[in-house]
Write a structure and sequence with these properties.
The structure holds two protein chains of two kinds.
Chain A: H1 2-10, H2 22-27, H3 32-62, H4 88-123, H5 132-150, H6 176-205, H7 218-249, H8 276-310, H9 317-331, H10 346-374, H11 383-406, H12 408-414, H13 418-448, H14 454-480, H15 500-530, H16 586-611
Chain B: H1 13-44, H2 61-90, E1 100-107, E2 110-115, E3 149-152, E4 154-158, E5 162-169, E6 174-178, E7 183-187, E8 193-198, E9 203-209, E10 222-227, H3 229-250
Parallel strand pairs in B: 1-5, 4-10
Antiparallel strand pairs in B: 1-2, 2-3, 5-8, 6-7, 6-9, 9-10
Classes of the chains: A mainly alpha, B alpha+beta.
Chain lengths: ~600, ~270
């Protein structure tokens, strides 16, 4: 009801939004669509920074100690040695920043920040988020945090170098860069919490009239549940970060045992009595659910894209919703599976193994339901569909490789090896990032009002898909071979020397993978200005965002909305077309059908007449 | 894929590898099954003619139930099956009686190995004495500690004997990784963790650090020498000889406290 009122007040006659100053419109905007674009723009910049870091890492692993081609000599002497090769110090910073940036500044802002902001209000028929001003604050904390994290470049000792997991004591006896990292994550967490509260409130209070919770598209369900995880988990991370900050800065001992022998730091001011494992518990209590924060919205987007392009109702809608809820609930109970070899009581290993095995069940349910959605469909392989299809297949690999780690005895061997690196990239790149691509292409017409270039989109997809597998699949084999993660030079070890050709193969694939992403940027930028104009509903989809003009004006909808059915009524026999938008009244459907049958009958009589 | 595993020479490693291959074959089977259906669907149900309708169908509760129950049963089976092996390896009440006890201390970026002297007793440790020159914090006033000897980046053990490692770290978290023994255990400062293994084959194997411990993380390599008992005894005598020679040379008054006799016995713990 509220939404309907707001929609009415904002419907300034067919999309003529009131004029705003440049700063209000493009910088300190409170419009959810502009904030979504800001999240997207910022996160894609970080995607390229994080990707470049990964390529430096890969170069070093494939060709240890060899100068970086072309730009090696241009890099500052704190990063590279005299020849222009990556130093061990910079390597450690690179791997830390690659992980931190990709997780906190790319995947979460793209999935939650961008799609959450863009799609949620549109899909529930609201004119904006519940708290537009908080939404703006949530965005602006993010580039601030990103800049703080990167500011490690300019301080003594360089960037943070304790891994994205920041395990103390290493992270508690570190340089200024680590402190910046802590503050940065704290701010990003703050931004997440504000965003999370906003999503929860928006979904609960601002749905269009007639829209029940079980009329919500999967994307909205996923972002809603994700927001709940964020609100539960992130304060714990914030607490842990505060303690780490104090250990670092004020010489407290939350995570510090007594009498450590550290050459680089005077430990006499640290009393001791703390427990390093406490950090791991607190960190993973947030960061394991964070993995689901990074995959659930992707699952939602993929569900919507698959149903739309299979022209079929989503298979087992309610099972899909309950599976998301189950993943979220169980996700809070499995953090200890990161700590099987940490020195934690092995009895806890047993319990966390059982909960981890159980969480594979809802993931399996989702996979089977996606298959069911495709069964007897009429699939159209557009660019978003290709990316969604790839998501499912890659997620299956990421899920299956997870079973190895869940099994505690096998984890003894593969823990902290490249098997884990392969697994996480199948989930976060093969899963989350393909979902991001699917969502970006899917909503691009709505966001920009223009169509993207299909041919470049397909090139981008195929190049990414092939080189992604070329990059990350062999990592499982490296892990089986025992290659430890985060090592600067694998050739130090005799048992890893045979894997050097594989490391080179991975690096070559990674280079192509990295450069292929310029196709995405080119496609987006070019199409934004030169693309063919998009219709309101180019994909013939059912959800409410396609009722709004492309791009939607300030206030979103130019027609009053009421929801009559669920989001996946594709190929319904009721309807004349093979889709049935959520807002079309039943009497209108009946009338359309009557008109259609009349036309059909008329043409039949005509045909019959001419036949005689 | 499993051919890439480093050679297993550990007694419990067989159980680990067996489980590894079991999960491997299960997941390959699931992968092939799911992807075969998937690819078949992609070709079979792509839009071929315009205007054709997809099957209007919302789902089937019996199917939903069965593909919930089947994975549930499979994963619970895997969890309980894994747990038996896990308990045998990790639970302290299932650890076999050790033939040799070695203390291992991680330090950025090396491993210290401490053997009890000829008395078979480790000297008392106190973290207050910990220093780069005394990584284990051996109490200088404890006579039992006088003949303890410490090696750096090299560990010797007898073949076919149960070796118990007391593991800790003096600075940051390290992880004691023996690929061929299927051993990995984090070394956490301020905490002692027990790990055991039993090598069934002599030879030289590598020990690595598996937890990021700083920029020199990759350099934290040690060598494990698995020897026949006789060779190990000779090695240990040599080590002990050098320790007592050093004690004699130092001629410190503490020496009389040392319980070191000339003849040596293999280091058997009195635990």
């Amino acid at each position: 009801m509220e939404a309907a009122l707001q929609t009415d007040t904002h419907a300034h006659g067919g999309g003529h939004a009131h004029r705003e100053s440049f700063i209000r419109h493009y910088i300190f905007s409170t419009d959810h669509k502009m904030i979504a674009k800001q999240f997207m723009f910022t996160a894609i910049i970080f995607l390229f920074i994080g990707g470049a870091f990964a390529l430096f890492i890969r170069w070093q692993l494939a060709y240890p100690g060899e100068p970086i081609p072309l730009i090696g000599q241009l890099l500052p002497s704190t990063w590279v040695n005299a020849d222009g090769a990556v130093t061990a110090e910079w390597y450690t910073q690179l791997l830390t920043m690659h992980g931190s940036i990709m997780i906190f500044a790319v995947i979460i802002p793209l999935l939650v920040g961008t799609f959450g902001n863009f799609a949620v209000p549109l899909m529930i028929g609201a004119d904006d988020m519940a708290f537009p001003f908080l939404n703006m604050v949530s965005f602006w904390l993010f580039p601030l945090a990103g800049v703080l994290m990167m500011a490690g470049f300019f301080v003594e000792g360089g960037m943070a170098a304790a891994g994205w997991t920041g395990y103390p004591p290493l992270s508690a006896i570190a340089s200024m860069g680590q402190t910046l990292w802590i503050v940065s994550l704290f701010l990003i967490g703050f931004s997440s919490i504000i965003g999370g509260v906003n999503y929860i409130t928006t979904v609960l209070n601002m749905r269009a009239p007639g829209m029940n919770m079980f009329d919500l598209p999967m994307t909205v369900w996923a972002v809603f549940i994700t927001a709940i995880i964020i609100v539960i988990g992130t304060p714990v991370l914030a607490a842990a970060l505060s303690m780490l900050f104090m250990d670092n800065f004020l010489h407290t001992s939350f995570f510090m045992p007594a009498d450590l022998v550290v050459a680089t730091r005077d430990m006499s001011r640290t009393a001791g009595g703390g427990q390093p494992l406490l950090w791991q518990h607190l960190f993973w209590f947030y960061s394991h659910p964070a993995v689901y924060i990074m995959i659930l919205p992707g699952m939602g987007v993929v569900s919507d894209v698959l149903a739309t392009f299979a022209r079929k109702p989503l298979y087992g809608y309610k099972a899909m919703v309950f599976a998301i809820i189950a993943i979220a609930f169980l996700g809070i109970l499995v953090w200890g599976h990161h700590m099987f070899q940490s020195g934690m009581n092995p009895l806890l290993g047993t319990t966390f193994m059982v909960s981890t095995m159980v969480i594979a069940v809802p993931s399996a349910i989702k996979t089977f339901n996606w298959l069911g959605t495709m069964w007897r469909g009429q699939m159209e392989f557009t660019v978003p569909m290709l990316n969604a299809v790839a998501f499912v297949s890659m997620f299956v690999i990421g899920g299956l490789s997870g079973i190895f780690m869940a099994s505690t005895p096998v984890d003894i061997f593969i823990h902290d090896t490249y098997f884990i690196v392969g697994h996480i990239h199948y989930v976060l790149f093969g899963g989350s990032l393909f979902a991001v691509f699917a969502g970006l292409y899917y909503w691009f017409p709505k966001m920009s009002g223009r169509m993207f270039d299909d041919r470049i989109g397909k090139w981008h997809f195929w190049l990414t898909f092939i080189t992604f597998n070329g990059t990350f699949f062999p990592m499982h084999i490296l892990g089986v071979g025992g290659m430890m993660r985060r090592i600067y030079d694998p050739t130090v070890y005799d048992f890893l020397k045979p894997f050097q050709p594989m490391n080179e193969f991975i690096t070559i694939n990674a280079m192509v993978l990295g450069f292929a992403q310029f196709l995405l940027v080119y496609n987006m930028v070019y199409s934004w200005y030169r693309g063919r104009a998009a219709k309101r509903n180019p994909w013939r989809a059912n959800t409410l965002e396609w009722v709004a003009p492309s791009p939607p004006p300030h206030g979103n909808f130019d027609v009053p909305l009421r929801v009559y059915r669920g989001p996946y009524e594709f190929s319904s026999p009721e309807s004349v077309q093979d889709f049935l938008p959520q807002n079309v009244p039943p009497e209108e459907v009946v009338a359309q059908r009557a008109r259609h049958e009349k036309r059909l009958a008329a043409s039949q009589t005509r045909d019959g007449g001419s036949g005689e | 894929m499993l051919d890439w595993l480093p050679e297993n020479v550990s007694v419990f490693g067989e159980g680990v590898d067996h489980l590894f291959s079991l999960i491997y074959y299960i997941s390959v089977a699931i992968f092939i099954l799911v992807n075969a259906i998937y690819i078949a669907f992609i070709f079979r149900y792509r839009r071929k003619r315009k205007g054709e309708r997809a099957y209007y169908y919302h789902g089937n509760n019996i199917l939903e139930f069965s593909w919930t129950a089947l994975p549930f049963a499979l994963f619970l089976f895997l969890a309980f099956y894994s747990d038996g092996i896990w308990e045998d390896i990790k639970y302290s009440d299932k650890t076999p009686n050790p033939d040799l006890v070695v203390e291992v201390m991680g330090q950025a970026y090396l491993w210290h190995f401490r053997y009890p002297g000829s008395d078979g007793i480790f000297g008392r440790r106190d973290s207050r004495f910990m220093a780069t020159t005394n990584p284990f914090g051996i109490d200088p006033d404890d006579p039992n500690g006088k003949d303890d000897y410490v090696t750096i980046n090299s560990m010797n053990i007898p073949v076919n004997k149960t070796v118990l490692v007391h593991l800790s770290s003096m600075d940051v978290i390290h992880s004691f990784f023996l690929p061929n023994m299927r051993v990995k255990q984090d070394a956490v400062p301020g905490q002692w963790v027990d790990v055991w293994f039993n090598s069934i084959k002599t030879g030289k194997y590598e020990i690595a650090c598996a937890e990021l411990c700083g920029s020199g993380h990759y350099l934290m390599r040690a060598v494990l020498t698995v020897q026949p008992q006789a060779d190990f005894d000779t090695w240990i005598d040599e080590q002990y000889g050098s320790v007592s020679a050093a004690l004699v040379a130092a001629g410190s008054p503490d020496q009389k406290n040392s319980s070191a006799p000339a003849a040596t016995t293999p280091a058997v713990p009195t635990k």
